[in-house]
Every structure is written in C-alpha cells, then in structure tokens.
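Entry:
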Amino acid sequence: MAGTGSRGRAERRSAGKLESEVLAALWATDRPLTPVEIQREISGALAYNTVHTILKRLYDKGLVLRDADGRRGAYRPARNAAELTAEAMHETLYRGPDPIATLQQFVTRLTAEEEQALRRLLTGDGV
C-alpha cells in the first residue's frame, strides 16, 4: 500500500541524526575509533555498511579525519564539539538578511548565567 512503510522504516534515524551520533561517539573518547567500535557505541543493531557510509560522508564534509598513523580504518573528529557548534552558529547568523537583529534576538534569550559568561568573554575576562 502506498504511503505506508514497514515498522523498521518508521524507526529509521535520519542521516543527520546518525552523523550526530557518530560524532558524539568520537568526541566521547580521546583516541580514533574504527567503524566496528563506533557501531558498538551507537547501536549494535546498526549495519556496519551504514556506519561506514556515515563516516565517509563525514570525511567528505571535513568533519572527521582518517587516522593515518595508527590502526587502519580508524577515525577521529576534525574539530571538537564546541568548535563545530560555534561554526554552525556563525553560519546561521549570516544566513539571514540582518545578523545584528539575529544577535539581538539570540542575546535576549540567554539565561543569566549564559549572559554573564558572554560578558566575561567580550571583556576578555575569560569564563
């Protein structure tokens, strides 16, 4: 019947969600991981080929690096989570027609703690 998928399809995670899960697994360790290790970390039920495909996509986007020195086929993140998030925020800021208005909206939604941290960063006092 058109429009009705199998139960397995309804439970599939999107490519973006899988990419996030793979990156989270890589960020959780201080060493490169193989696709098999990543598969175990995010879901043993996920096919090895799926993990490998996600790693290839992340590599093509410059988000992961292949470990040339160590174990064959191991991957590590190209940037840490904070760097990647900051990059995404910066890209989003300039996506709209008025980055200053976007910043104003963003700042008005900060918690008191976040606002204090931002003030310290802007004045050079650190966090």
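The chain is about 55% helix and 5% strand.
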